[in-house]
Amino acid sequence: QCTPVDANKSYDYIVIGSGAGGIPIADKLSEAGKSVLLVEKGPLSSGIWNGTMKPSWLEGTNLTRFDVPGLFNQIWADPTGVNCPDLDVMAGCVLGGGTAVNSALYWKPHPRDFDLSFPDGWKNSDMQKHVDTVFKRIPGTTTPSKDGKLYLQQGFDAVGKGLVAGGFKEIIPNDHPDQKNNTFGHSTFFIENGERHGPLRTYLATAMERANFNLLVNTNARRLVRTGGHVTGVELECAQGQGRSGIVKVTPGTGRVIVSAGTMGSAKLLFRSGIGPKDQLDVVKGSALDGSTMIASDQWINLPVGQNLNDHVGTDIQISHPSIVFYDFYGAWNNPVKADADKYLKERSGILAQVAPNLGPIAWNQFQGPDGIVRHIQWQARIEGRTPTSMTITQYLGTGTVSRGRMTILGNLNTRVSTVPYLRDANDKAVVIQGIDYIRGILSKVPDLTWVVPAANQNTTAFVNSVPATVGSRGSNHWVGSCTIGTDDGRTGGKSVVDLDTKVYGTDNLFVVDASIFPGMMTGNPTAMIIAVAERAAEKILALKAPASRSRIMRD
Ligand SMILES: Cc1cc2nc3c(=O)[nH]c(=O)nc-3n(C[C@H](O)[C@H](O)[C@H](O)COP(=O)(O)OP(=O)(O)OC[C@H]3O[C@@H](n4cnc5c(N)ncnc54)[C@H](O)[C@@H]3O)c2cc1C
């Protein structure tokens, strides 16, 4: 059912998007006593918030596909109603955003993840207290099954032994976030009691208890309503035939809007609101959907939204080892092994409490490129491949990458990655080759291991060159950067879209808080780091004085 918003109500803060950035910041702002409206375009997800999407064997329980770790891979089998159909990359458009659909891998950031690319005020020393807060609320675990056991670890053991023989040290990764050099460990997940945990179970739970916190789902933010650099409200429209429509206002004078719609979604919303490079705003102006209602061109704010785009550069290798045991997590959707389903339903234990497709080990190293920049590499293994004894290991090139891409908007208002960020720089490529060469050398010594990809006799450079630089072949779903934070104001030739308070340049009450503000790549999967950034942003935003108009109102 689609109903109009209450035109008489206004909010101190309207937060758009309920992902890794949006839920935590909405919680923090409501904790500070502000009235908050969190707007999410997708439907309910987790069972604890009355989500309903589930296979038949979960009927009669309060669990959904989003809660059961063994079903997380289902997004690749059938993303209908879960992914964002307006994007050309995979992302979750449900309550919780990526934190509802992702693999729940969860890492404390390496100090360099902040120190190398984030601006002053956002360095590791500034962020540490926020990281600590995040890990107090969401500790994470290396043993997701409630009984504390790890299941089907043959792949971990075979590769782990090889890594140790090759000089790697086994660690508990989040006990040593700064040790990302020749180390490996078990995957760490935001799972608790065998179910997906994370922001949906923590930040959203505390926010929901407050009378000053309000949540709308199935409601799309179409555009920001603004006069010059001041946003007065947000135009909403129903999604999936449900939700709310109409203009919802921020508190006159003092209200603020936080855009947390993800790296693609936040950029898209800014484009539709007349904020971005002229070529993109011209596309929106020329569109059938927005052309007649778009803000006048003399109000456009020219910022490099959509540029500085980045993602981990993925390179998949595949090995086979006779000890490896494949588990059919895909089959568990319709036809789970009865004993495994029972164990999960009764005890939240067993293989289905482990994230599909049995992720781990995760290993790290650092390599210096020919340009002198040290780059971080993460190898992430999973039991899946061409044969039942195969393991795929994705090599992520992270902190230190210099290649960047761009996302843009199309006439139908879908977005696309128009310049892929992968390996545009020769130094990035040199390190990818170095990393693959290194791990091949180590794993080749594992007894009985055979190479599936690349073939044992294929030269590493030729192999790396053979993997296309496309989202399909190299994408990692870790998009960052379209609304970069920094002091170099993008209106005057810099690359930054938001200032050090996460405020959009040229505006006085509009902020962006999500992965899109990351200036560069991080070492590991980004969720924990995004939540820490949201914690920091909440502190910064709450400390900001109200815009000048508010001071005038108060004096008059
Ligand atoms: C399949 C997959 C697996 C992943 N695995 C991992 C992992 O294991 N570990 C990890 O750390 N990271 C993982 N990631 C990445 C991680 O989930 C994302 O980096 C993170 O969720 C991004 O946070 P965000 O707040 O920027 O955006 P998101 O979490 O994407 O949230 C954006 C939200 O905004 C909503 N939205 C967008 N536009 C609008 C609008 N106009 N109006 C209203 N709402 C809107 C969306 O529906 C969405 O809910 C994975 C991602 C995917 C897709």
From TrEMBL:
Residues annotated as transmembrane: none
Database matches in Pfam families: GMC_oxred_C, GMC_oxred_N
Swiss-Prot/TrEMBL cofactor(s): FAD
Keywords from the named record: FAD, Flavoprotein, Signal
Keyword field contains Secreted: no
Binding of FAD, residues: 94
Name of the protein described by the UniProt record: GMC oxidoreductase
Species annotation: Aaosphaeria arxii CBS 175.79
